[in-house]
Amino acid sequence: MRLAATVLGTALALAGPVSLAQAAPLDNEPLATFTANARTNTAAPAAWAAGTRAYLVITAPGDTTAVRTAVADNGGSVFASYDAIGVIVAHSTSASFAATMRGVAGVQKVGATRTSDVPADAYNPALPANPAQATAPTTEPVRSDMTQIKADQAWAVNPGSSTVKVGILDTGVDDQHQDLAPNFNAADSVSCAYGKTDTRVGAWRDVDQHGTHVAGTVAAAKNGKGAIGVAPGVKISSVRIAEPGSTLFYAENTICGLVWAGDHGFKVTNNSYYTDPWQFNCPNDLDQAAILEGVGRAQAYAESKGSLQVAAAGNSNVDLANKTTDTSSPNDSTPVTRTLTNDCLDIPAELPGVVTVAANGTSGTSKASFSNYGSNVIEVSAPGESVYSTAPGGKYATLSGTSMASPHVAGVAALLASANPAYTPADIRAKLGEQATDLACPADARCTGTTAKNSFFGEGRVDALKAVGGSTPPAGAYFENLTDYAIADNSTVESPITVSGVTGNAPATLKVGVDIKHTYIGDLKVDLVAPDGTVYTLHNHTGSGTDNILQTYTVNASAEVANGVWKLRVNDNASQDTGKIDAWNLTF
Fold first, then answer.
1. Of 16, 119, 162, 550, whose CB is crowded by the most CB atoms within 10 A?
2. 3-class DSSP state for residue 454?
3. Strand order in the sheet with 524-529
4. Contact indicator for 53, 117 with CB cutoff of 8 Å
5. According to CATH, where is 2.60.120.260 located in the chain?
6. Domain with CATH 3.30.70 in the chain
7. At what angle do helices 251-263 and 286-304 cross, to 10 degrees?
8. Band of residue 16 on the pLDDT scale cut at 50, 70, 90
9. Fold of 53-112
């Protein structure tokens, strides 16, 4: 089930067997061989045949050679192997494969990941389309979802560090989008569709629109075009785990994505989906027990490497702490009605260590009608209704779902990591809750707990301003210049801001936000020039070997009349490295 979405003013009825946290939405180069990451051992796959099914074969982490040999000896082929966590992705057309492998020495669990065949595309994947880009908007209004979590105030303090990488595990991302391209990290982007890494250029692109929308909420650039993300200074990488056509997220795809996140230094990942085909995986089912084990190991591995996973709670309006029945699974064949216990988990949202996110309604203080809830399941909440963000082809869309709430939290987590580089995943997870704005239960008997922590909102709505060290809104008026000014070798360039309507002098704590893109900031001297010509030095040839200046400075400008033309002056004092003033701002 998908919620309705509005794209550029057009209502879209979105239907189909997708698992995008049940959220709102949701080619053609041959592949000779997949490229595997350093922790993935792969063998040449067998030729595709009708009836091919995928399985997780679970063994002890480390050397999986013996079990991989057993797969081949018992009617299967090894499609991918994640030795660090002891998970093998096997394919077989034999109906007895799982039962046979469960009797092999060293095998701990075996389970089918699907109730339908593996598509032929798995053996020769088509590249997603690279859509033509629409004309960029000329406005960039601050949206209500951003003001609710005080992201607009956080930007003036710290918009996020370009050293922080956020992984978007989703349907893919349109890296050409004008609001995403400035922050897109192609080097660490990949497709994990079908459970094996595909590092071809563009394999990470969107096969729907969901992932592009999520990416924009996390880190759309603050560039005067369209939308701004929660953390517009961080880097985003696309890890496409949805398969084309079905847009389903099978367990092997999720495992591949989480291992990739751990191995590629993602500080945060966003996971706005549940692992198909089962909305809830139950440990008393042999197939689902293997899925729980495999995905659980992958999440623990990513966390051990420093990656925090943030996940959508789902859109069924059910109490995750009191599960009863499931009528929507499996969603890749014919759903059945089955009885659930609380041991049956929505994954990755309910895995240990994952931040589980509920959605607030448009008021910011209510639960969105569709959002799942649950005492001691929901960690925090964030805006998830009518969220405006990026869509493929340079477009924009308004979508609703816990899928839209989760990337707000991932963005705040990225800001926490930016402000506190030494924080571990556990540190960030704790701070998200500690700094959240408490929300009281509405007049709804389903909401249990206290204002400080309850089943609808967890510890409350996340706070971006507190994440970057702010406790109160910046005082006074805010002015910015988003026009690019090129910085040539051995030259001086100035970017002006005209301040008006401010009474008296500037404050002793004038905030100067600077965003300079330059390949060697040791060449640079950066000054703030007051309207009367007084010069305040902000940066003076420090940071040799470092790219870019993305920082907020505090200047005692109390001797200066506030109104007038202020300038950011940049002197480049050497050859070979150039750049631009991307943007800068003043907060009085």
1. 550
2. strand
3. 492-499, 564-572, 524-529, 535-540
4. yes
5. 478-587
6. 53-112
7. 10
8. very low
9. Alpha-Beta Plaits (3.30.70)
Sign of the Cα torsion 467, 468, 469, 473 reads negative
Residue 44 pLDDT > 90, yes or no? no
| Three-class secondary structure of residue 238 per DSSP | strand
| pLDDT tens column, 560-569 | 999 999 999 9
Going by C-alpha positions, the residue among 235, 401, 412, 191 that lies closest to residue 313 is: 401
Residue 7 tokens read as 């794209």
Confidence of residue 25 (pLDDT cuts 50, 70, 90): very low
pLDDT at 45: 56
Burial (Cβ within 10 Å: 0-12, 13-18, ≥19) of residue 248: buried
The set of catalytic residues is 170, 210, 403
CATH 3.40.50.200 residue ranges of the chain are 144-468
Model confidence over 157-201: pLDDT tens digits? Answer: 999 999 999 999 999 999 999 999 999 999 999 999 999 999 999
Q: Are strands 478-481 and 387-391 parallel, antiparallel or unpaired?
A: unpaired
- Please give the pLDDT value at position 357: 98
Q: Are the beta carbons of 411 and 151 closer than 8 angstroms?
A: yes
As a whole number, mean pLDDT of residues 470-489 equals 76
Q: If residue 257 lies in a helix (H) or strand (E), which one and from where to where?
A: helix 251-263
Over the chain, what is the mean pLDDT?
Answer: 90
- We find that the CATH architecture of domain 144-468 is 3-Layer(aba) Sandwich (3.40)
Residue showing tokens 């910015």? 480
Q: Looking at 136-145, 280-289, 293-302, 539-548, which range is the least confident one?
A: 539-548
Separation of alpha carbons 557 and 499, rounded Å: 14
Whether 47 and 108 have beta carbons less than 8 Å apart is answered as no
Beta strands in 283-430 (DSSP E): 308-312, 325-329, 336-339, 355-360, 380-383, 387-391, 395-399
Token code pair at residue 16: 């189909």
Query: Does residue 501 surpass a pLDDT of 50?
Result: yes
DSSP 484-511: -EEE-TT-EEEEEEEE-S--SBPPTTEE
Dist. CA 209–CA 373, nearest whole Å: 26
Phi and psi (nearest 5°) for 311? -140, 150
Task: Please give the full DSSP string across 377-405, using - where no structure is assigned.
Answer: T--EEEE-SSEEEEETTTEEEEE-SHHHH
DSSP β-ladder status, 87-92 and 53-58: antiparallel
Are 248 and 242 spatial neighbours (Cβ–Cβ below 8 Å)? yes
Backbone φ and ψ of 70, nearest 5°? -65, -35
Residue 544 binned pLDDT confidence (cut-offs 50, 70, 90): low
Region class of 8: left (phi > 0), else alpha (psi between -120 and 50), else beta: left
Cα angle for residues 187, 189, 191 (degrees, 5° grid): 140
Contact 5, 14 (CB under 8 A): yes
